[in-house]
Amino acid sequence: MDKWEEKFLRDIIELDTNSDEKKNYTECAEVVMRYCKEAGLKVETFDSKHDGKPQPNVVATMDVGSKITVLLCTHYDVVPAGDVEAWTRPPFKLTIEKGKAYGRGVTDNKGNVVACVSAAKELIKNGTSKVNWKVLISPNEEIGGAWGIDYLMNGPPKIRGDLALVIDSGPTYVSIGASGVVAGTITVHGTQGHAGYPFAFNNAIHLSIPLLDRMLDYVDVRRKVESKLPAPPGSPHATLWGRFSMTIYHAGSKTNIIPGKAEISFDCRCIPEEDPKDVAKDLEKFLEMTKEETGVDASLEIKMTVHGWGSDPKNKYIKAFHAAVQEVVSPDIPISADLGGNDGHFFTAVGIPTACYGTIAEDGNFHGIDEFLRLDDFEKVKKALIHFAETCE
Q: What average pLDDT score do residues 300-328 get?
């Protein structure tokens, strides 16, 4: 990582662009635009302005007059830092030690933003690219992308290309698909009252226990759902599979009050071939069966559905990108699909073949404490992008 790249990364890491508060979006976009212009890219912004807050999408173009246009998808929003005191380095200050860069969003996904822009800078300087690039640098990815990449693809800009590369994945494989998501909350209904009279009320925590125990069986139901797309290296299954996790439990307000409700939030991962709306209906049926078996009163609220997606590994552009990564990084880099979700479905939904690559290592603590980026992985991503642009025809 040279001094220009380090300064670019430092300037955007210092801005807390967490997707909960949606602050510093304008400031971050302005920094990104400045560095894109320094790289020689033509820059436009498209602000979706959702909920009265600015949400600028930066589109940085490298036009070499090619008949092929590649879209590079990145994002500058991050998840909250969480327990700041648990971090051993400041989350919003770039720290570089022993070949690693630390900070919230350093690998998911601000390091990838810098890698894309830096790769374009080198291609423009050398005049060696055989394809046009549009680097899409958006907010909103961490919460669904509706006012980010979705806005760019389906809103007024209606950006199009021949291939999309989601630079928001890992360095050990080229991904050609990702999981869908169904997220929501199960609410167990009891009756609130004085804890001195437990016989007079229905304790929602107590009621939730048999229901939770039965809902664990849905983990096995989802596990049996299998995709045709290969799972990432090191996965417990050869292909992507369905997953169900209960992730948040909330109940009670004081020790002397019997809680009248208990809320259990969940995350259900769909394979690319599934429609998340169908999965949501199946989950609802399973909950209804569970309620009948346990006698527990509960309701279900689906709060988010996101489509998974998959692309044809035989597509000529995807094959060319995979070959470029194998040549630059390792001939052993496989084709796989992602266990998590990403913005790729916005491209495949309009017929654009899509692949993913990036710096996000499995042990990089992304979304966790002391998130880090390996500088070697940064170089791999940048060089792979450059080599692809110089060889794709």
A: 96
